C-alpha cells in the first residue's frame, strides 16, 4: 500500500471526521483488527506514526491458529509464499550437543495449516497492508502522531493527531477506539491502566543475518539451554536467519554491531562461511519482559496487543496474542454497532482474553527459566533428564501441540465450572465433505454445528438469524470432534470459539444474536455517523 503522508487513503476514501472505530497503530494487531472490521463493513480509521511498514524484523513465528486467522483475512496464499514450516525443536547444551529433539512435520494440522511457521515481520506487514486495500470502509493514515484521546459523557471518543510531515493538527470523533499502539502505549496511559510485572526480565541480543550460503543446519528451532549464555537459532526464510543470545552483565548490542565481533557467537552454526558472505540485517538489544495491563478497557477505549501484554519470546506467541485480541474483539464490536449484541457483551473481551494471555505468559516464563536457570546444577539436571523427555507419556505431544487454553467463562462462553467440554475451545477448521473447510462455510458468521438431523424449522431459524447450519455425518472430523466433546451440537462464534454446547441443537438457537434491527441500514457506518450528528456530537 502506498501511504501518502498526511492524506493516506484506502479505496479512495478521504480521512473522515466522524467514524465508528479508530485504530491506533498499524502493526500486525492493528492491521488485523482493521481488516476484520472492514470485512463487516464497519468504517474504520487507522492512525500510525510510521509513513510505511516498519523495516526491521521483530516477530518470526506464528502457529496454525494464527495462520488460520490470516486465511480468514484473505492472505493465506501470500503468507505461504513468504513463510516456511519449522521442523520442530531441539534442546542443546552449552556445547551444542543435542539433549532432546521433538520433530514436527510440515503436514497440515487441525486448522488446515502447518503448526509452526517462520516468517519475516516486515513482509507480513506489507501483505497485510496490501490486503487492506480490498476494504473501502477502512482508511489508513500514516506518518501521523496521536497526541490526545478524550472520552465524552455522550459515549464518543475524540482523538487528536498531528501530521508529522506538515505539523497540521486534526481531530476525529469515534464511537470506539482500539489502542494497538505498542508497549509504550498512549492509549494505556490515557485510560489509567498500568502494566503489572510478572517477575521475568532478561536482556538479550537479537541478530538477523542474510546469506546465500547454505548453513546446512537442521531446519527447526535450536534452543541452547545454558545459564551462562542461553541462545536460540532458527532459519526464517530462504536466506534469512535469526539468533538470540542472552547478554552477559556489562554487554550491550553495541558490542556486536560488526561481523568481526559477532562471528564468534554465530560460528557454531555458520562454520567456515566467510564473514563477507554474511550480511547483518540488524542487531538489537531487547529486554524480554512478562507484563500484563491491570485493565484493558475504559468505556469505549480498548487495549490490544503489546499495549495490553508483553510475553517473553520462548514459545513464539507474542505477536499471536495480539492477533487473538483482534479476532476476539472485532466481531463483538461489529455486532454491537449493528444492534445484534448489547454493549455489555464487550465486557467479555477482557474476561476472556486476559486469563488466556496470562496463561501463555506463564508458559513462556516456564520455558525461559528451564533454559537458563540453575547454574551448574541446572545444567547437570538438563543433561540427565532431557534425553528421556520423549519417554514421558504425552509430553512430546504437549511440547509440539499448538493448541492454546480454552477461554474463561463469560457472557459469551458458557463453560462448565470444572472446565470440561468444548465451550471456550476453538472449533477445528476441519475439511468438509465438499472439500471446503469449516471457515469457508462459516465466513465470519455464527455457526451451529450438529450431528443431529436438522428440522426445517431449525434450518429456518438459523438462517433468519444470519447464521449458518453445519450438519455433520459419522466418519467426518467434525463428527468425531463433537463425539469427543460428549455433545451433539455446538454453537460456534464468528471467531471460531465454541460459545456453548447442547444435546438438542434447537436449544442453542435462542443464544444466536438477533437479526439487525430494521432501522439499521446496510451501510452501518453511515447510519452510525448520522446518529452521532443527530446528538450534536460532530468532530468539532
Please provide a written account of the structure.
It is globular, with a radius of gyration of 24 Å. The protein has 14 helices and 23 strands. Among the domains are: 18-82 and 119-195 and 292-363, FAD/NAD(P)-binding domain (3-Layer(bba) Sandwich), CATH 3.50.50; 406-517, Glutaredoxin. Strand 1, helix 1 and strand 2 form a beta-alpha-beta unit. The protein starts with 17 loop residues before the first strand and ends in a 6-residue tail after the last helix. By secondary structure, it is of the alpha+beta class. Strands 1, 2, 8, 9, 10, 11, 17 and 18 form an eight-stranded mixed sheet that branches. Strands 6-5-13-14-15-12-16-19 form an eight-stranded mixed sheet, sandwiched between helices. A four-stranded mixed sheet has the order 21-20-22-23, with helices on both faces. Helix 1 runs parallel beside helix 4 (121-132). Residues 1-13, 392-396 and 534-540 have low confidence and may be disordered.
**CATH topology tier name of the domain at 18-82 and 119-195 and 292-363:** FAD/NAD(P)-binding domain
CATH class of the domain at 18-82 and 119-195 and 292-363: Alpha Beta
Residues in helix, %: 25-40%
- Alpha plus pi helix count: 14
Principal-axes geometry comes out as globular
Roughly what fraction of the amino acids lie in strands?
A: 15-25%
Q: Provide the low-confidence segments as ranges.
A: 1-13, 392-396, 534-540
**Major sheet description:** 8 strands, mixed
Give the end-to-end Cα distance, rounded to a whole number of Å: 30 Å
What's the β-strand tally?
A: 23
Rounded mean pLDDT score: 87
Structural category is: alpha+beta
At the fourth level of CATH, the homologous superfamily of the domain at 18-82 and 119-195 and 292-363 is FAD/NAD(P)-binding domain
Radius of gyration: 24 Å
CATH architecture descriptor text of the domain at 18-82 and 119-195 and 292-363 = 3-Layer(bba) Sandwich
Counting copies of identical and different chains, the oligomeric state is single chain
Amino acid at each position: 500500500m502506498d501511504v501518502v503522508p498526511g492524506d493516506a487513503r484506502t479505496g479512495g476514501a478521504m480521512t473522515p471526521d466522524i467514524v465508528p472505530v479508530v485504530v491506533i497503530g498499524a502493526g500486525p494487531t492493528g492491521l488485523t483488527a482493521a481488516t476484520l472490521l472492514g470485512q463487516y463493513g464497519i468504517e474504520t480509521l487507522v492512525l500510525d506514526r510510521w509513513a510505511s511498514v516498519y523495516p526491521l524484523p521483530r516477530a518470526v513465528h506464528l502457529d496454525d491458529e494464527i495462520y488460520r486467522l490470516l486465511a480468514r483475512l484473505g492472505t493465506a496464499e501470500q503468507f505461504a509464499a513468504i513463510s516456511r514450516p519449522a521442523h520442530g525443536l531441539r534442546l542443546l547444551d552449552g556445547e551444542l550437543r543435542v539433549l532432546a529433539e521433538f520433530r514436527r512435520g510440515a503436514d497440515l494440522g487441525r486448522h488446515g495449516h502447518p503448526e509452526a511457521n517462520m516468517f519475516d515481520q516486515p513482509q507480513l506487514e506489507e501483505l497485510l497492508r496490501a490486503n487492506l486495500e480490498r476494504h473501502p470502509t477502512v482508511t489508513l493514515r500514516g506518518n501521523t502522531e496521536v497526541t490526545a484521546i478524550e472520552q465524552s459523557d455522550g459515549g464518543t471518543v475524540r482523538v487528536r493527531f498531528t501530521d508529522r510531515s506538515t505539523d497540521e493538527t486534526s481531530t476525529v470523533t469515534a464511537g470506539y477506539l482500539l489502542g494497538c499502539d505498542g508497549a509504550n502505549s498512549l492509549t494505556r496511559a490515557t485510560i489509567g491502566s498500568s502494566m503489572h510485572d510478572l517477575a521475568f526480565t532478561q536482556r538479550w541480543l537479537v541478530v538477523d543475518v542474510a546469506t546465500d550460503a547454505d548453513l546446512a543446519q537442521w531446519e527447526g528451532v535450536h534452543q541452547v539451554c545454558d545459564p551462562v549464555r542461553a541462545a536460540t537459532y532458527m532459519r526464517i526464510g530462504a536466506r534469512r536467519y535469526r539468533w538470540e543470545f542472552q547478554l552477559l552483565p556489562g554487554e550491550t548490542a553495541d558490542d556486536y554491531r560488526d561481523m568481526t565481533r559477532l562471528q564468534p557467537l554465530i560460528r557454531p552454526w555458520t562454520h567456515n562461511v566467510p564473514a563477507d558472505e554474511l550480511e547483518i540485517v540488524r542487531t538489537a538489544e531487547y529486554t524480554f519482559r512478562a507484563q500484563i495491563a491491570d485493565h484493558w478497557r475504559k468505556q469505549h477505549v480498548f487495549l490490544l496487543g503489546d499495549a495490553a501484554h508483553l510475553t517473553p519470546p520462548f514459545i513464539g506467541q507474542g505477536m499471536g496474542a495480539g492477533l487473538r485480541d483482534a479476532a476476539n474483539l472485532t466481531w463483538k464490536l461489529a455486532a454491537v454497532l449493528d444492534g445484534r449484541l448489547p454493549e455489555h457483551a464487550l465486557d467479555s473481551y477482557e474476561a476472556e482474553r486476559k486469563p488466556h494471555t496470562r496463561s501463555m505468559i506463564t508458559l513462556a516464563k516456564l520455558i525461559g527459566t528451564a533454559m537458563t536457570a540453575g547454574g551448574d546444577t541446572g545444567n547437570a539436571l538438563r543433561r540427565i533428564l532431557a534425553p528421556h523427555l520423549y519417554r514421558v507419556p504425552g509430553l512430546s505431544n504437549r511440547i509440539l501441540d499448538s493448541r492454546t487454553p480454552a477461554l474463561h467463562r463469560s457472557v459469551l462462553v458458557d463453560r462448565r465450572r470444572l472446565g470440561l467440554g468444548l465451550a471456550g475451545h476453538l472449533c477445528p477448521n476441519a475439511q468438509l465433505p465438499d472439500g471446503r473447510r469449516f471457515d469457508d462455510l462459516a465466513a465470519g458468521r455464527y455457526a451451529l454445528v450438529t450431528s443431529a438431523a436438522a428440522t426445517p424449522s431449525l434450518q429456518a431459524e438459523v438462517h433468519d438469524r444470519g447464521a449458518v447450519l453445519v450438519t455433520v455425518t459419522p466418519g467426518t472430523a467434525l463428527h468425531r470432534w463433537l463425539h469427543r466433546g460428549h455433545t451433539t451440537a455446538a454453537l460456534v462464534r464468528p471467531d471460531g470459539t465454541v460459545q456453548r454446547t447442547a444435546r438438542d441443537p434447537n436449544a442453542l438457537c435462542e443464544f444466536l444474536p438477533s437479526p439487525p434491527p430494521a432501522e439499521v441500514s446496510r451501510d452501518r457506518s453511515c447510519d452510525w455517523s448520522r446518529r452521532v450528528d443527530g446528538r450534536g456530537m460532530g468532530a468539532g
